[in-house]
Every structure is written in C-alpha cells, then in structure tokens.
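Weekly structure sync, notes
Attendees: PL (lead), two postdocs, one rotation student
Agenda item 3: pending single-chain targets
PL asked that the sequence for the first pending target be pasted directly into the notes so everyone works from the same version. It is reproduced below exactly as submitted, 224 residues in total.
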Amino acid sequence: MQILENFIIGVFAGNGLALRSTPRVIRRFAEAYGTPNYITGGWTCFGARVMAFKLTLGTFPNPDYAEENRCMVLWGKDPSRSAVLERHQIDLSRKRGAKLIVVDPVITSMAKRADIHAQLRPGTDCALALGLLQVIIEEQLYDKEFVEQWTVGFDKLKEHVKDYAPEKVSEITWVPADRIRQSARIYALNKPACLQCGNGRLHRNRPRCRHNDDICFRKGCQFK
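Predicted structure, written out during the meeting:
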C-alpha cells in the first residue's frame, strides 16, 4: 500500500461506539493505512472522563448508593433524564437521611430536591472544584491517613489551592462563598460520601482530561 506523503490523515467514526467491537476494526484500518489519528465522539466526551479517572485514581469508580451512604454529589449530571434507576437509588438514600449536593448551571429536577444547589456559571467547574478543595484542606477536613498512604504530590496541591479562596472562586463561578464552604463541609464531614460526574462539564475549550482530574482530587479527599 502506498502511503501518501505531506498529508495528515485522520479517521473519525462519528459516534462514541463505546461498547461495540467497531472501534477495534476502525483502529486496525487506521494503523494499516499508516495513521495514528483515530477519534470518535466519545473521545471528546465520555472517553476523556474515563481517561482522567484512570490516570488519577487508577480505575473508573462508580458511586455507591448503599444504605450507609451519607452524602451524594451530582456534578453536571441529571439522573432524572439520563439514569432513572440511579435516580431511584438516590431517592432511597435521601429517605435514609443522606445529603444531596447538585452542581449544575441548570435548575434540574434533582437540583430542586437537593440540600444545596451550586448553580455555577457554565465552564467554571474547575475553579469551583479548587475552591472546595481549598476549604477542605485549609480546615483539615480530609482523610489524612488516606492522603499519606495513597497520594503523591499532595503538598503541591495544597500550595496550589491557596489561591482559590471561596471569595475569589465566587467571583469566577457566581456561587456564593458561604455556599461553597457549606458544600465542602457537608461533603467532607458526612462519611461515606460519593460523587457522580456527568459529561456536560467536559464540553469546553479547556483540556477535558485535566478538567476531570480536579473532580478526581475531590474524590480522593473523601475516599473512605
């Protein structure tokens, strides 16, 4: 096969194809054609989410809405529309007394029933995550044993989030500073807690994988 020179060749599959064998065939075709440039819609959406979790946590965790769950965070996700069975599990946890925090620019049905709705300005999720981390770290609400045993670079993160006090983050996100502090405290102090992310916050110009990393760090602060 003659490989064209001075051309950049890419293969786009058109959709995520996440659970099918089709991507393997398309990748093989691209390799045979001599190009590493293969992409689907999933790589700018769910694929970036999975990659960030695996790079940061080593796996792709799913929330546990078990009976002992005491706090749930829905970040850019509305199970009422996208995962009805998951919404049912959340409702059961709420009846058992678990707290619910919703981070979403839209007043969704889940936001209406939440204890706290952090209605942030679209595209400012990263700043909000850093602001929440700043409160958790400054007030020493994180799991120190977990951080010491299972994390790398925590000192650098601690130094980095010093610039993201709730007042500054409030100017960026439009979420009131007291609501940022309240959200951080409820999440950190009600153990065990879980955090479920949607894909909506990924559709920004900021590198999507790094966007997810900030959310992963929050999970690590409340991993037990």
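Discussion points:
- Residues 11-44 form one domain.
- The two ends are 55 Å apart (CA to CA).
Action: rotation student to compare against the earlier draft before next sync.
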